[in-house]
Amino acid sequence: MFVVIAIIIGVASLIGGYIAIHHEDLSVAIIASGLVSLFASILFLLLAAPDVAMTEAAIGSGLTTLIFFYVLNKIRQRND
Amino acid sequence: MIKKLIIIGIMAGVVLIFFDLFNAFTGNEVLSKTADYYARNGAKEVGASNLVTSIVVTYRGFDTLGEVTILFLTAAIISFVLKIREEDIIPNRQVRITSEILDSAAQVIVPVIFMVGIYIFVNGHLTPGGGFPGGAVIASGVLLMIMANPKFGISHTVISWVESISGVAFVILGVLGILFAGGFLDNRVLGLGDFGKLFSAGIIPIIYSFIGLKVGAELSNILGTISHAQNEKN
To answer: Which of A37, A46, A63 to mutate against chain B (most B CBs within 10 Å)?
Structure first.
């Protein structure tokens, strides 16, 4: 059971990573890269490391995603 | 074509170098000498039921001091690089109105997130977690506040006071360890107490609370700086 869930999460994060690299819309790409962190944090939880999972969820999918959005906003302002 | 061939060649070379390493790897059947010592004597010497915490805060406490310093340096450098001059600030920047859902949800959830963060670092010696995850959770609460109200400014006075007091307190508690116990950051300044209770494991809960506040303040400061930098004229 554990292996099946782990494989599903692994495949989902691979798909997320592919979308993050290849999607044309940058906002979708940023969301996808945040999603990869979220999947990683679930995987850490399954591997019995809840403390790492908490940090990954807060920093990887929370703060980093927002910082990417701020940077994207700044680049768009400059290009206008 | 030649470029691709070179890239493939380099990748094959890397695989060749690391294949031996991978092939020769066998998992350890027994714990290494240091790990074995921690596993056997950690609970008895430190009195924290979370062994990871007793290693991070006591046995390897000096490393943690270094990590907190690195985080402080990062926050300071980000503030320095993203500093904007008074005349470059857009006076009344138009921001998109936040959705009703996010606005109402933030008012309900932010206090709960702060509470969870404080719980995580206060109970760092009992349950998984500690100063760094707790601080990150608190910073994610600040993140929700900024998202709900983009013009929300973080008070730099509060942040810098919390940050500096926690940092100084961490070092002072470490020095108390030299004076009253075995060495720098030794936790036996206070009694070890009952194993598994909130007030146990010497000064670990106090140190971890200061680390949590410091990390939370630093990450919030980074968020606040980057959010403020959006007001700069191009």
So the answer is: A63
Amino acid letter at B195?
F
Please choose, from the candidates B105, B183, B166, the residue with its C-alpha nearest in 3D space to the C-alpha of residue B141. B105
Whole-prediction pTM value?
0.82
Range(s) of the domain holding residue A34: 2-79
Q: Is B66 on the interface with A (CB under 8 A)?
A: no
Instruction: Write the residue in B128, B147, B234 that is nearest to A51 by C-beta.
Output: B128
Using alpha carbons, select from B44, B74, B72, B73 the residue that is nearest to residue B58: B44
What is the amino acid identity at position A61?
S
User: Residue B7: which residues within 8 A CB-CB, separation 6 or more?
Assistant: none
pLDDT tens column, B123-151: 888 888 888 888 889 988 888 888 888 77
Residue B138 in tokens: 């608190």
How many structural domains does chain A have? 1
The CA-based diameter of chain A, rounded to the nearest angstrom, is: 51
- pLDDT digit string (tens) for B22-35? 888 777 778 888 88
Does the model's ipTM exceed the 0.90 cut?
no
User: Which tokens hold the place of B233?
Assistant: 């004229």
Distance separating alpha carbons of residues B141 and B192, to the nearest angstrom: 33
Which residue type occupies B1?
Answer: M
Instruction: State how far the alpha carbon of B97 is from the alpha carbons of B3, B145, B148, B150, B176, in Å.
Output: 50, 14, 9, 9, 51
Contacting residues for B145 by C-beta, under 8 A, at least 6 apart: B106, B110, B152
Instruction: Render B148-192 in DSSP notation, one character per residue.
Output: H-TT----HHHHHHHHHHHHHHHHHHHHHHHHHSSSTT-STTS--
Taking only the tens place, the pLDDT of each residue in B203-212 is: 888 888 888 8
